[in-house]
Amino acid sequence: MKTIASMGIHYLQGLNAANVPKELIEKGQNRVIEASLTLIRERAKLKGELLRALGSVVASSSLLGVPLGHNSSFLQGPAFAPPRIREAIWCGSTNSSTEGGHELNDPRVLTDVGDVPVQELRDCGVDDDRLMSIISESVKLVMDEPPLRPLVLGGDHSISFPVVRAVSEKLGGPVDVLHLDAHPDIYHCFEGNKYSHASSFARIMEGGFARRLLQVGIRSITKEGREQGKRFGVEQYEMRTFSKDRDFLENLQLGEGVKGVYISVDVDCLDPAFAPGVSHIEPGGLSFRDVLNIIQNLKGDVVAADVVEFNPQRDTVDGMTAMVAAKLDPLENFDCNDPRYNPLLRSAAAKTPSNHHCTPACKLRVSNFTSFMP
Ligand SMILES: NC(=[NH2+])NCCC[C@H](N)C(=O)O
Ligand SMILES: [Mn+2]
Ligand SMILES: [Mn+2]
Question: E-assigned strands of the chain?
């Protein structure tokens, strides 16, 4: 499929061939990259400064969108997901109180630093090696501003590699990864693409960014998927044995002795009955409540998370899967500020989120940031 971004790349390659100096293009690309990072850096800084001034918050989710779909082996719709998930997060069809009783409409619970401008960068001819570095750099910019913790909205699953790499590099060691997915995404290389969404966990394991990798919800796995799993010591929990594994998976304790826990939620971990808006329909999956039980009961210090593979082009007209993605937010559901779960904390007031649905007429809203300004 010819996308606007790929046309842009061909256009720039054409210019190259026509003897435009290479440095001219590279300098221009570097300026665009710097400008892209500046907006994320400054938004993260402002919000980090505000939360530190308010005090007493140890962890707060900060949305970072990565609208990247071209590393999918099938459909590219996940590139359109982040604005649809935000729309659902802020939709007034219900309210912004979470299951845990916290208010999303409070920057101490949830902030937003915007999107990595993936299409704009590709339009300037930025290749995937650099794009992956820009995604890693963006995640680090959020982590530079405690108490912000990145909650990354994909995008296809290829983005988990640069995100987990950044988290591990920033914290100075591996993390434990809880990966919810119908697929193990651990092919050495898929259809010639080392950055494929079906290979991200091979890159993560090779890089030494994860100590333990637990894959939950698996029901579409090939011989290579199992072999690669063995090779990297992955703990693969398949749906066919979920009723037996449920008790263990709903009482996980992770991250001890490493830098923390990372949660990656591929929306296709859910049964398509709960989440039809995905590219790869695989029957026999988890229920929405199964996923919440696993996340809400997890004990560990969740340092960052992603929600990937939501495909709005396959969603129901009323955006059912957008709402599922919004409510699945693992940092919102996992209460880092709850002293029961976070050993770092024994006395702070708990804060967390969850959220709601949208009609096309839904108002565009942002968090209640200004009411917290002096
Ligand atoms: N991130 C994903 N949704 N990956 C799906 C990969 C599908 C691929 N056809 C496989 O055999 O595994
Ligand atoms: Mn999947
Ligand atoms: Mn996946």
Answer: 60-66, 110-115, 148-154, 175-180, 210-218, 235-238, 261-266, 302-308
